[in-house]
Amino acid sequence: MRFILDIARSPGGTFALVAVALVCLAALAAPLVAPHAPNAIAPVDRLLGPSLEHLFGTDHLGRDLLSRLVYGSRVALGIAFSVISISLTAGVALGVTAALSPRAVDLLIVGLFDVVTSFPSIVLALALVAVFGPGLGNVVLMVSIVFIPHFGRVARAQTLALRNSTFIEAEVVLGAERWRIILHHVIPNIIGPIFVLACMDIPVVITIEAGLSFLGLGVRPPLASWGNLLNDGYTYLDQSIWPALSSGLALMVATLGFSLLGETLRDTLDPKLRKAL
Amino acid sequence: MLSRAFLYTHLAFKLAMALLAVAGSVVLLLALIRMIPGDPATVILGSRATPGAVAALNARIGLDKPLGWQTADFFMSLARGDLGADVFNGRPVSGLIVAALPNTMALAVSAMLIAVLSGVALALLSAKNPGGRGDRAIAFLSVGFISTPSFVVSVFLLMTLSVTLGWFPVLGAGRDGDFVDQLWHLALPTVALSVGWIGYVARLLRSSLLETLGENHIRTLNAYGVSQTKIFVKYALRPAILPTVAVLGMGFGELLGGAVFTEVIFNRPGLGSLIYDAIRTRNYPVVQGCVFVVVLLYVLTNLLADLLQTFLDPRERSRLIANSRGR
Lengths: 277, 327
Description:
- Chain A is an all-alpha fold.
- Chain A has a single domain, classed as MetI-like fold, CATH 1.10.3720.
- Chain A is built from 12 helices and no strands.
- The longest helix of chain A has 37 residues, at 178-214.
- Chain B is mainly α.
- Helix content of chain B is 79%, strand content 0%.
- Chain B is built from 14 helices and no strands.
- Chain B has helices at residues 4-34, 40-45, 51-61, 67-79, 93-128, 133-147, 150-164, 179-213, 216-223, 228-240, 242-265, 271-280, 284-312, 314-326.
- The chains are: A mainly alpha, B mainly alpha.
């Protein structure tokens, strides 16, 4: 509780907490919060402006925009959390392995990270989707690959710094097994900055997913993703601004909220990290 | 003094590492295309294609050979300036890229220029009175700029300035040969693409400016009564901008990636829209060629920024010398 109060002390932190709480609440309680079914089509009501019945208006098929945005938060957060969990786990595993392995293995893993990061992230995601095709599962997997080196590099650097410390040496001398040292001593010591990094990567993942969906290469319609909604809005921009405006604002609030939360978290947890990340 | 021979070795080493990364990415790219469920030729031609046509197309893309061969082939053809051919109309991919690249370069370079100019201005304003109201406002603005996706900015700009107010042209790159018209068409995409990097530059530069301003030589200059403006621009900005230069190298490549969105949204011809169209039609040789060029540019601009930093910063140079003696 005190921790949350610490975050809420700055105006940015307060905004972050409110925005993130709003998005998480919408995602968790979507069926309760959404006033209409997200995929209920009503051609008569197409492209309406805001009214009491439809607070944010309707899209080109007469679907209620607010409900679609609420359900879209499920897609955005679901994909963001899945991607971060997969890439964090794989990245930490690879990074720690690299740091504690013979030089050849280390070089191989670092080389793989270098190859993956020699693509601009969105271009790699596009190339991967080009190969494996769009769809929810593929998007999660492809974007995870893009983010593995992020976590891997930090995990490797942190483990290298830790490798020669006295308490690890003591464990080795005491005859502790390798996996025990890794699980009980290395990982708990390196995980702090990695969690902060994870929090700061959430808005980036949300952006990439929405971007892929915007291009029609991510989540498939009729599933409501903010990227799909923005694309619909873009297509019908000359007839109504509401679909584009509302989905764009939803994306902005979510990404800004998570970015500010990540930064406040970093500053609150460890001011020293300010330079490292 | 930095010995010339050492400098060349350093340069060659960096270049070799960069080219190795590019080679690795080519192998990855070619391996990926092999992993397509089914095989690429069937995907391109559809399930009703004759086995003969499928085999012929596979051979044309080079999929009938092992990965090692295919990679070697790719680089051999590359040396001749050949990046393969469009699956549908047989036009050389290199020609498509040469036609598209200037548009994307114009977009990326102008976006970078705007990002640097506005970012530096914001950073100077913010570092002038750290912790003050202006500084906090700029800090919030910077995070807002960084976290807003460029495609949202693009759609919003299009919505307000083009569709509603009609101040800017809606789509396209402008008439050929009409420079003013082309510039007019470039304005909104450039702003949309640069917004995130304005925030980045502003924040990064602010923190390194504050660090530099706390150093002894600045205190001495203050004691001598040198004017604040002169201290800021001449003595603080120069060393403080170096870390930003390194990030800009990376930024240029990311801008090329971001150009996919801006070009698709504003319907501009360029590398980004070329990649997009190729992906949608599963035109693998074009995807392969374009992605290769983007990766090459990305790695090279990173390298350039890295080297530039070494040459601009005397401290980096002396660290290099120290390292060379330590070897």
